[in-house]
Design brief:
This protein has about 425 residues and is of the alpha/beta class. The chain is about 50% helix and about 10% strand. Bound molecules: alpha-D-psicofuranose (PSV) and manganese (II) ion (2 copies). One manganese (II) ion binds next to loops. One of its GO terms (molecular function) is isomerase activity.
């Protein structure tokens, strides 16, 4: 844990410059009738969950090059998330992946969560790998498997995930299935879908009534001919059959190139089925790069839909869970997560600048150019002083990565955990 006095000392020499930039931004936006304090309050309240599997190096099926100081246990993962949250005040929860993160000492973990003011966001099941001593193999699928024993095993694993989550106060189960086929003819599309729907129904029934099941889709990989849940339409149809506690999860990297993700977000909001996000950056596919590193305009347009939906009384979508799903082999994962959160907050801040009434007028008048320019103007506004102010107001660092480096945190972690420590992950 970082002493808050250290962050205070770190911020002091940066305050003068920050205040200058903040005042300028406040004046500029004030002239447009925007309430900057309200925007900052919203940024302070906005929280993005950190996945346990992003705290170490990974995200490659080739070589893994450990950076050192990676968390070796769930307790150490919580420590890392607590640290991130101290630095930026925007990451107060962690997503777990079972069996990598099976809680051992539940009482001790509960206490740690309380001390670090963290919560467990979601529990992710893993039926894409075989575990030691597991009787049935997932080589040919899990919830969709042709053999009942494999399906049953996968169902029980998901229920077990819910039980682990319950012990720690989580309320969300995220299901991502690797099920699918690699060659034409390998799998009967309709039957595989139905087996999956039936398996999900068994899990859904075992879930407590205040839990949400998030169903993730992905068009390819590890199966390259067909995935059982390849697209939002399939996720949506499964949710419709399951009930109101089932919601679609949009992972930004799980789309074919050039997919209009913001429109998918708008559609799901319209249907009240947008359950959550896995934020990441994508150049080609499921690249799991830093959020906002590749397509910042797209990220802004996604937030534009979210803000629009939140302000529209006709939209009855339940709360959306925000998570990061990334994995790195070249960057320090903690620095990457700080960057990702900053880009997410920036995109959100920009979406809050959009004059929705004016946009609606332009749309009604089919003024294509003005409507587009309105969005571009918000996107091109420098909102960094607002994000920094939000960090500051939540007791964090004006420059989280700067503070992380100044405090030599990675070096400290290497001293504590060793140069070769490898965290469990993808
Ligand atoms: C695999 O594509 C994946 O990246 C999915 O996005 C899941 O959310 C994540 O792994 C963790 O299982
Ligand atoms: Mn994901
Ligand atoms: Mn993925």
């Amino acid at each position: 844990m970082l002493a808050s006095q250290r962050l205070h000392d770190f911020n002091r020499p940066l305050q003068d410059d920050h205040q200058f930039r903040l005042t300028y931004t406040q004046d500029l936006l004030g002239r447009r009738g925007l309430d900057v304090q309200d925007i900052v309050r919203r940024l302070v309240a906005f929280q993005v969950a950190i996945p346990s599997w992003a705290l170490g190096t990974g995200g490659t099926r080739f070589g893994r090059f450990p950076l050192g100081g990676e968390p070796r246990s769930l307790e150490e993962k919580l420590e890392d998330v607590g640290l991130l949250n101290q630095l930026n005040g925007s990451s107060n929860s962690i997503s777990l992946h079972i069996p990598w993160d099976i809680p051992q000492d539940v009482a001790a973990l509960q206490q740690q969560l309380q001390e670090q003011r963290l919560t467990i966001d979601s529990v992710n099941s893993n039926t894409f790998q075989d575990q030691k001593e597991q009787p049935a193999s997932y080589k040919f699928g899990s919830l969709s498997h042709t053999e009942q024993a494999a399906r049953e095993q996968a169902i029980q694993h998901n229920i077990e995930c819910v039980r682990h989550g319950e012990a720690l106060g989580a309320k969300t189960l995220t299901v991502w299935l690797a099920d699918g086929s690699n060659f034409p003819g390998q799998q009967h599309f309709r039957h595989a879908y139905q087996r999956t729907a039936d398996s999900l129904a068994a899990i859904y029934e075992a879930m407590p009534s205040d839990w949400t099941m998030l169903i993730e889709y992905k068009p390819y990989e590890p199966n390259f001919y067909s995935m059982v849940i390849p697209d939002w339409g399939t996720s949506y149809s499964l949710c419709q059959q399951l009930g109101q506690q089932a919601q679609v999860l949009v992972d930004l990297g799980h789309h074919l190139p050039n997919t209009n993700i913001e429109q998918i977000v708008g559609r799901l909001l319209h249907f009240g089925r947008l359950g959550g996000f896995h934020f990441n950056g994508s150049m080609y596919g499921d690249d799991d790069l830093t959020t906002g590193s590749m397509k910042p305009f797209q990220l802004f347009l996604i937030f534009n839909e979210l803000v629009d939906g939140a302000r529209d009384e006709a939209v009855t979508n339940a709360a959306v869970a925000y998570m990061i799903d990334a994995s790195h082999n070249t960057k320090d994962p903690l620095e990457d997560l700080l960057q990702s959160v900053e880009n997410i907050l920036g995109a959100y801040a920009k979406a809050l600048l959009v004059d929705r009434a004016l946009l609606a007028d332009y749309q009604a008048a089919n003024d294509v150019v003005r409507a587009e320019e309105l969005l571009r103007d918000a996107f091109l506004t420098d909102v960094r002083p607002l994000v920094q102010e939000a960090y500051c107001q939540s007791g964090g660092a004006l420059d989280p990565i700067g503070a992380y480096r100044a405090e030599r945190i990675r070096e400290q972690l290497i001293r504590q955990r060793g140069k070769l420590s490898l965290s469990t992950g993808l």
